[in-house]
Amino acid sequence: MALNVNLKNMQNVDQIIKYVQIGCVPEVSNNENDLTNHDSTLLVHLKNAKSIFNELIILLSKQINNEVDLQIKLQDIINACLYLCGEHCKSNFPWSDEESHTLMKLCIEKLCCLMHYVNIEELITHLDVCKIFGGLQCKLENDNWKKYPAAVECFMWILKYLKMPHLNSLLYLVMPLPLNMFDDYQDSSVNTALDAFKHIIDNTPSVELAMSGYDLVLLKSLETGLRSFEYQLIPNLMKCLLSLISKMQMKHLNKKNSLEWTKFDDVMNILLPRMELERKHEPIICYASIFSLVLESTGFSCIRWSERLIPLFAEYIMNSQTTFPTVKAIEVFIQQTWPRQCTHWKVLLTILIKALYNEDKNSVQPNKENIIVIVECIRTLEAARPECIRNILNKLKECNEFQSKMRFKEYLEML
């Protein structure tokens, strides 16, 4: 569609709003068999969006320089401008590119200047956010969001600028979309939902989450996802779930050495069987990436899971791509359970020494990062049981069997 009108001839609010809205991405087919037509439609639209951006920037620049006297208030058209800008908040969308993203940033700069705000975050927090989200609702309610991917990105862009306490009274507006997307079959939709959940959880007081009832809704949804989702979604899901439980169970943070059963233990009860049964390489890497975070959140209570954790430590540490995160997890385990209890020091030391020896066996160049983190973890273990660990390390250094293992001996000398 070629544009044959322009902003400079418009003085009516509705005319300007409709013209700017032409720049917003229209409804697109979500039929996976029609992707060629889908992409070509978006490319044609991109040209129109750039043209409108250019005219909008010229108009705003003239207004800043008092070269034009608009018979309207900027507040009347700013929501439409934000919708257009939000759709081009990144340059790698199917409907955007580097040029449109640059124009978007320039447009935001002009809007902030005219409204006398320092940046976009300050601008958005001083606007009627309910009205902004309300204007997107028709595109995002129910399953409509699947036809308006650009509106989803605009929603996320605005959401990220809303921090505590501005989100406190907006949960009823910002929660429905990610909850709908969380139930979608596409991983990209679920990850977008998790991204929204994490931001909302981090920027909403626990009292507000509880009063709205969304804390329990989220907890049930995330626990269900932990049981059923594919492995690649688990790291992002776990970050949300652990943040949520931390907010819901603040008393756990005040009782660091308590063995009281908490929601973190419920998470361990779901996650550990998945980790124990997994034999494929890629899922193990995913699970290892969150190992430390899970143990740190569980706190001293992870001691009750030690009989199941230690075999996982022994298995994961021998995988070259999961050695580093596993050693960090062991270090967290030691820190969380010591000094109250350190009965597993001998088996943990064995696991760590084996991993250090394995670095010597590596035919290629040893991984210095792995070696350093293993040495540091052994030092942490020694701090917990200094007399026992030091005796064993001294015996290992003197052992004739290892005299030919020059690199291994060098690693031991670091201790």
Walk me through this protein's architecture.
The chain is mostly helical. The protein is built from 23 helices and no strands. Helix 12 runs antiparallel to helix 13 (234-248), helix 20 packs across helix 23 (406-413) and helix 21 packs across helix 22. The protein starts with 12 loop residues before the first helix and ends with a helix.
Secondary-structure blueprint:
Layout: H1 13-22, H2 35-64, H3 74-86, H4 98-115, H5 120-125, H6 129-140, H7 149-160, H8 171-174, H9 176-182, H10 187-202, H11 206-212, H12 214-228, H13 234-248, H14 250-254, H15 263-277, H16 281-289, H17 291-298, H18 306-316, H19 323-337, H20 345-361, H21 368-384, H22 386-398, H23 406-413
Helix pairs in contact: 1-3, 2-4, 3-4, 3-7, 9-10, 10-13, 12-13, 17-19, 19-21, 20-21, 20-23, 21-22
Q: Tell me the span between the first and last alpha carbons.
A: 71 Å
Total beta-strand segments: 0
Share of residues in strands: under 5%
Please, what is the average pLDDT?
87
Quickly count the helices: 23
Cα-based radius of gyration, to the nearest Å: 28 Å
Sheet with most strands:
none
Summarize the helix and strand pattern as letters: HHHHHHHHHHHHHHHHHHHHHHH
Oligomer: single chain
Bin the helical content: 55-70%
Shape type: elongated
Structural class: mainly alpha
